[in-house]
Design brief:
Length: about 150
């Protein structure tokens, strides 16, 4: 049996440690390295308060994608949300995107309600949207008599 020097053993141990750290970083960070099983769809909202990058996108209660990017469209004055949808899910042009809250004070997510129109292509824009409901605003209206 071949004996390795202490330096070689330490080098192999450190290399295995770096490989384990890199693997866990990729898995826990949901990084897509070599395969892209998603296509982009843009949704325009009036208000996306509380929505964050990497928030889930759901249809019929099943997670089918995530929020990739949230920007402001200066031309229309609306929020532009880029969604990444799994390639095996086919959306139609009359799909409705809504910003919802999981639970009473939970995280925000995007809910898609599928229609029956023509299929969407990658990069298409969803115009039928429902913005987030601001719970604090509703409570303040109720408390101060604005309802």
């Amino acid at each position: 049996m071949k004996k390795y020097s202490k330096e070689t053993q330490v080098g192999i141990f450190v290399l295995l440690g770096f490989m384990a750290i890199a693997y866990m970083s990729v898995k826990l960070g949901n990084v897509q390295l070599f395969s892209d099983n998603f296509y982009p769809v843009v949704a325009k909202f009036n208000d996306v308060t509380g929505l964050k990058n990497n928030a889930p996108v759901q249809m019929y209660g099943v997670e089918m994608g995530y929020v990739e990017q949230i920007d402001i469209d200066q031309d229309t004055g609306m929020s532009s949300v880029t969604l990444r949808i799994r390639k095996d899910i086919k959306l139609t042009d009359d799909t409705i995107a809504s910003v919802k809250t999981s639970g009473l004070i939970g995280d925000k997510y995007v809910k898609l309600s599928r229609g029956g129109g023509d299929p969407l292509k990658a990069g298409a824009v969803l115009r039928d949207t429902e913005s987030a409901i601001d719970l604090e605003e509703l409570i303040s209206k109720y408390v101060f008599g604005g309802v």
